[in-house]
Design brief:
Blueprint (H helix, E strand, L loop, with lengths): L12 E2 L12 H9 L2 E5 L5 E5 L2 H9 L4 E2 L17 H5 L7 H11 L5 H24 L4 E2 H6 L1 H11 L6 H13 L3 H23 L6 H10 L6 H31 L2 H9 L4 H12 L7 E4 L3 E3 L2 E3 L4 E4 L1 H4 L34 H18 L4 E2 L21 E3 L1
Parallel strand pairs: 1-2, 3-9
Antiparallel strand pairs: 2-3, 4-6, 5-11, 6-9, 7-8, 10-11
The chain binds protoporphyrin IX containing FE (HEM).
């Protein structure tokens, strides 16, 4: 047991709170939001942080990266669990940076993630989704949808973008999962180091076999020019893996569950695939699976909504709470594929806004569209209350999703 610092206010809610239902935020969020946009909460080590629960404040704080920093090297940067203590080591090439260095790194990757570039990837993603669904249909029901579709699709897509062989995708999946789901710090560190060592070898091998892919571009334009070292290139790849793998897997699992639980809307989507982009956007708002990842540290004393945030205070910008803010989204707790989701914070906002948002949208639209068209009888193979939710992990999601058809 680590020693707990003295807690000054025993009345504070402990954070993170648990979701009671896989697709609804903890009920405490709404109670806290009613008291005002900012609440103090207590973290696992006894320290406190500000939980931001209303949309206007959260959005403004996301945008103000100078005041609310993402610098993971700042010793005051909040962490939500012991095992996250070492995350900075593996993520500091993007998520954990501020200012010019962050901008420069982002610019190196951005051209491959624009809406136009991602549009060109759609046929490839469609092929992969079809192949995986062919494989699923060969299996005997019930099957775990997360294992057969949720994990392989995003990892195959990102491997193809990076220019990494299909055979290696399984190693990627195992390592990315190892980091995100490690039960303790030691195992997270080991998984992260293993992934990094492996990627450095991948970069070396790629040097001899350049092609038209993201890794080759990074090698030609950044590594060979001396701008980045091979460790730095590897860390950028880790950022893409961490950013793009488990997130999309979670959305596939929880998204499928949510659609199955709303059969009328699912029937509409099946009949009219043009509704898919709106449905995916609503799933992003409704599920807010990255709720526990959007953390910041204040760089100076600042007043927000009548509360004083001190320099060094931890700040949690709750996308799940903000996305259920009734002042912005009517009937916010209802899943409605026809609603106007504009301004939702499911991909964050401001300088750190999700780099892979267009790719995520394309993967989700293609996967849901194809899955429910090709297997119209798809349904849960267990009662809803037996669906196993992840608890105490960095992303909201499901351990598995048994389905039949
Ligand atoms: C549906 C799945 C996804 C969700 C819910 C999601 C969510 C988010 C959120 C909320 C952020 C902002 C973090 C912050 O402000 O601190 C973010 C950043 C990021 N995401 Fe995603 N993401 C998804 C898919 C992807 C994909 C497919 C990729 C790439 C392959 C990706 C790569 C990244 C990267 C690199 C960042 C860091 C950007 C920066 O710091 O400048 N994400 N994501």
């Amino acid at each position: 047991m680590t020693e707990q610092p003295t807690v000054t206010n025993p009345e504070l809610h402990e954070y993170p709170m648990k979701r009671g239902c896989p697709y609804h935020p903890p009920t405490e969020y709404a109670e806290l939001a009613e008291q005002g946009p900012l609440s103090e909460v207590r973290l696992f080590d006894g320290s406190t942080a500000w939980l931001v629960t209303q949309h206007t404040e959260a959005r403004a704080m996301f945008a103000d990266a100078a005041m609310f920093s993402s610098d993971h090297d700042n010793p005051a940067f909040p962490i939500l669990a012991e095992r996250e203590k070492n995350f900075p080591e593996f993520t500091q090439e993007l998520f954990g940076l501020d200012g010019d260095r962050h901008k420069a790194r982002r610019r190196m990757l951005l051209p491959r993630f624009t809406a136009k570039q991602v549009e060109r990837l759609r046929p490839m993603i469609q092929r992969m989704a079809d192949e995986l669904i062919d494989e699923l249909l060969e299996l005997e029901a019930p099957v775990d949808l997360i294992a057969v579709l949720g994990r392989p699709l995003p990892s195959r897509v990102i491997c193809r973008m990076l220019g990494i062989s299909y055979e290696e995708h399984e190693l990627f999946e195992v390592h990315a999962q190892g980091i995100m789901q490690a039960p303790d710090l030691e195992q997270a560190v080991a998984a992260g180091q293993e992934l990094l060592d492996y990627l450095v070898q991948v970069v070396d091998a790629k040097q001899k076999n350049l092609g038209d892919d993201l890794l080759s571009t990074l090698i030609t334009d950044r590594l060979n020019t001396g701008e980045l070292t091979s460790i730095e290139v590897s860390k950028l790849m880790v950022a893409l893996l961490i950013g793009g793998q488990e997130t999309t897997t979670s959305m596939i699992g929880l998204g499928t569950l949510t659609l199955l639980q709303h059969p009328d809307q699912l029937a509409e989507i099946r009949e009219n695939p043009e509704l898919l982009p709106g449905a995916v956007e609503e799933l992003m708002r409704f599920l807010s699976i990255a709720d526990l990842t959007t953390l910041r540290v204040a760089t100076a004393d600042v007043e927000v909504a009548g509360r004083t945030i001190k320099e060094g205070d931890g700040v949690i910008l709750s996308t799940a709470a903000a996305n259920r803010d009734a002042a912005v989204f009517d009937d916010a707790d209802t899943f409605d594929i026809h609603r106007d989701t504009q301004g939702h914070l499911g991909f964050g906002h401001g300088p750190h806004r999700c780099l892979g948002e267009n790719l995520a949208r394309a993967e989700l639209e293609i996967l849901f569209g194809t899955l429910f068209k090709r297997i119209p009888t798809l349904r849960l193979a267990v009662p809803m209350d037996e669906v196993s939710m992840k608890v105490g992990m960095t992303l909201e999601g499901l351990h598995d999703l048994p389905v039949t058809w």
